[in-house]
Amino acid sequence: MVAAIQIENLKFKYAEEDVLKYINLHVPKGSFVSILGPNGSGKTTLLKNVCHLLKPYEGKVVISDQLVERFKSKELAREMAVVHQGANTEFDFNVEDVVLMGRFPYIKKFQSETLEDIAIATEAMKKTSTLHLKHKTIKGISGGERQRVMIARALTQEPQILLLDEPISHLDIKYQLEILKLCKMLNAENNLTIITTLHDINLATRFSDYIILMNHGEIVEIGKPFEVMTKENIRRVYEVDVEIVKMDQFENPMIVPI
Ligand SMILES: Nc1ncnc2c1ncn2[C@@H]1O[C@H](COP(=O)(O)OP(=O)(O)O)[C@@H](O)[C@H]1O
Ligand SMILES: [Mg+2]
Which InterPro entries match (predicted)? Predict the structure, then answer.
């Protein structure tokens, strides 16, 4: 299978201690992958190594057949968009301008956006149900709306790969589902490779092709949801006991804490 992302023997540390220890990973193009694991297990650090915000001290990250450090920043932004945890609301831009910022890898120096850029941004706002917010300011909308706006901005980058760090953590169940369904639709229709960190083990199980289960900076298990989300693995990583329940209408099992 063609790899969207290939990681070999990656090690990373902020100070002395290794935060990522010997990570090996192959993400097939067009797959929907969730990274699960307790707080502090290294999920965000791994995503930041993938998008080259952080640099491993050992090992390599290959994006679409090229070492990540070989990409020019605009080239990488055309390949991969990232929605970081917690939208940056330091500056109070309006929603449409925030979404249009996603066109930066395509706009040449001293040029302004074209009608095509605006059309792409508008389409992204339609897909994320944020078009009606376009004249509001980013501070003047709810957390769920802001999260959808940040996804709209990522989509205007027209990337091949979308990285999301806890995209649904502060949302109610309606918006959690809406965002995951949107990601699934983009994944299915545009063959967009999705890699997202999540805390909800049931939603991850339901939506993912593959799950990466992390603990203490290591990948404990990687595979299809039913292979990874076993009683034993959940006990080992989260220290809780669960029942695994198969429901007819879903391909993947439900996980019930006991
Ligand atoms: N900027 C930083 N400087 C030093 N240590 C950090 C920094 N960011 C995260 N860490 C540490 O790295 C470990 C992994 O963190 P993180 O990748 O944020 O985990 P997760 O996203 O799974 O909660 C934690 O022990 C955390 O305290
Ligand atoms: Mg995190």
Answer: AAA+_ATPase, ABC_transporter-like_ATP-bd, ABC_transporter-like_CS, P-loop_NTPase
* Helix, strand, coil percentages in the chain from 3-state DSSP, rounded to 5: 40, 30, 35
Residue 242: which residues within 8 A CB-CB, separation 6 or more? 231, 234, 235, 255, 256, 257, 258
Report the separation in Å between the CA atom of 43 and the middle of ligand 2, taken as the mean of its atom positions.
5
Nearest to 106 by CA among 138, 127, 131, 79: 79
CB 222 within 8 A of CB 25: yes
Average pLDDT for runs of 10 along the chain of length 258: 93 96 97 98 98 97 96 97 81 92 92 94 94 95 89 96 93 89 93 97 96 98 95 96 90 88
14 Cβ closer than 6 Å to some ligand 1 atom:
yes
Tokens 């993400």 belong to residue: 27
**CA 182 vs CA 41, 164, 186, 187: distances in Å:** 27, 13, 6, 8
Residues 6+ apart with CB under 8 A from 52: 61, 68, 69, 71, 76
For Cα atoms 211, 215, 216, give the angle at the middle one, nearest 5 degrees. 150
Nearest to 203 by CA among 236, 235, 223, 178: 178
What pLDDT shows up at residue 122? 98
Ramachandran region, residue 61 (left: φ > 0; alpha: ψ -120 to 50; beta: rest) = beta
Alpha-carbon dihedral sign for residues 146, 148, 151, 157? negative
